[in-house]
Structures are given as C-alpha cells and as structure tokens.
Amino acid sequence: MRTKVFKSGNSMALRIPRKFGAKEGEVTIERVGNRWLVEPHIPEEWPKDFFRKIRITDPDFNRPEQGDHRDFSG
Asked: What keywords are annotated for this sequence in UniProt (predicted)?
C-alpha cells in the first residue's frame, strides 16, 4: 500500500491508513535493510506477581558490606 511521509515540525511523519486499525500512541521503528519496520510499542513489564513470588535463597546474592557509616552533617 502506498502512503505519505511528510514534515511535522522538525520531524518526518508517516501517515498510516485507517484500515490498518492503528491507535494513537507510541510505535517503534527500525531500519531493516532499505525498509522501515514500524510496530506498536509494547512497554516491557515485570510479570504481575514477580515481586510477590520472588524468593532469593542464594547466600551469594546478599548486599555487599557498605563499610563504616560517616556523619557528614556538620
């Protein structure tokens, strides 16, 4: 399908025909050879229960020693 690339402010914009059903929002664009690949942006998220379910039992995963506490208040 043929569409238009046009100037919008200081950027170039791509007109996406309505029949593609695109919603307003962010997309990602990638150059693949001499083509542009445009896809809806799907933010990466942690699995919903990740922080509730995670249990770190490896003793090597502990926080390292922080050294002596110094008071810089005065």
From this structure: DNA-binding
**Is 71 inside any structural domain?**
no
Does residue 35 surpass a pLDDT of 90?
Answer: yes
Structural domain span for residue 22: 5-61
Give the global pTM: 0.49
* pLDDT value of position 33: 96
User: What does the radius of gyration of the chain's CA atoms come to, in whole angstroms?
Assistant: 24
Q: What is the DSSP letter of 23?
A: P
Q: How many domains does the chain have?
A: 1
Whether residue 66 is contained in a domain is answered as no
Cβ atoms 50, 61 nearer than 8 A:
no
Q: Which residues share a beta bridge with 29? A: 38
